[in-house]
UniProtKB/TrEMBL annotation:
It is found in: Cell membrane. InterPro entries: Beta-lactamase_Reg, Cobalamin_biosynth_CobD/CbiB. It comes from Pandoraea eparura. GO terms for biological process: cobalamin biosynthetic process; response to antibiotic. Its main location: membrane. It is a multi-pass membrane protein. The lineage of its organism: Bacteria, Pseudomonadati, Pseudomonadota, Betaproteobacteria, Burkholderiales. This is Cobalamin biosynthesis protein CobD. The chain crosses the membrane at residues 74-95, 100-117, 174-194, 316-337. Keywords: Cell membrane, Cobalamin biosynthesis, Membrane, Transmembrane, Transmembrane helix. Pathway: Cofactor biosynthesis; adenosylcobalamin biosynthesis. Belongs to the CobD/CbiB family.
Amino acid sequence: MQASGPGICEKLCYRYTIPSGDLNARMTFFSVLLALILEQVRALSTQNPIYNLIRSHATHTSQSFDAGLPRHGVLAWLVVVLPFVLAVGVIYYLLMRVNIFLGFAWNVLIVYLTMGFRQFSHYFTDIHVALNNDNVNEARDILHQWIGIDTVDMPVDEIVRHTLVHAVVASHRHVFGVFFWFLMPVGPAGAVLYRLAEYLSRRWTEPAPDRSPAFGAFARKVFYVIDWVPARLTAIGFAIVGNFEDAIYAWRHYAKQWPNENEGILLAAGSGALGARLTGPLAEVSSVDALSQGDDAVLPVGSECTPRTLQAAVGLVWRAVLLWMLLLLLLTLAVWLG
């Protein structure tokens, strides 16, 4: 009995002193999976108290700090982002010290709040249904409510194209970008950092009579840095689960058509992967004319957008989600078996 005692103690000590990095890796897959399931069962309203608190805090901070100089935007960004990120990180650390299951529940809650299709997909779904029912005017109205552009007399192919452009970017920012930062060592704090940075880069760069143009410059730049790697990984995912050759070709030739480099890469790769012309050719020429221009000619990628392309886009995004979830599952199994 005495000889077996140390062995049992050693096993128990090892069991309850697993390195925190291993614990994080083991919980991550199940946190994301459960959060996605919960989000599909009960979508989070965009008017929930937490979102309203962040919107109110961001608006009040911008009004208080904006004095026309770029450094005021830096201070305001830190005032909005740091308290939430630090609070989420500290709570996660304390919960993990108390019980791993409390830390797991906190992970699921934060992922549920920051990641999900249903936070933007109702517009996409409503437009899809309206076009399938040949109700073009309703589709125009929904698109106008979503992105605020003039949709009067907009043809069907342009309605679909604008819908796809915003859906591709939204799927990245609501799913894949959050996914990437949640996998970082900071865990749920990384997911909160990404969502807040995305929100401020969008909100503080919108034209407003009471906001100076310089105020949102820092928010835009810092989100570009934060989103640099995730945007390229999402584009690679689209290429793998879609038309790989066309996605890479469009990435090389059409990404620079968009003012935002990260969005340009997403849209170009998504265009090629879908086989739909989300980004038009650099020069409006036919394929035959482009071929006659020699080896340096840029060929159009994909065909014109149709309502059927919307369904294809849904399949593309879900396949990309399954791809990254499969990779995460393999990583989790490697940690468990290792």
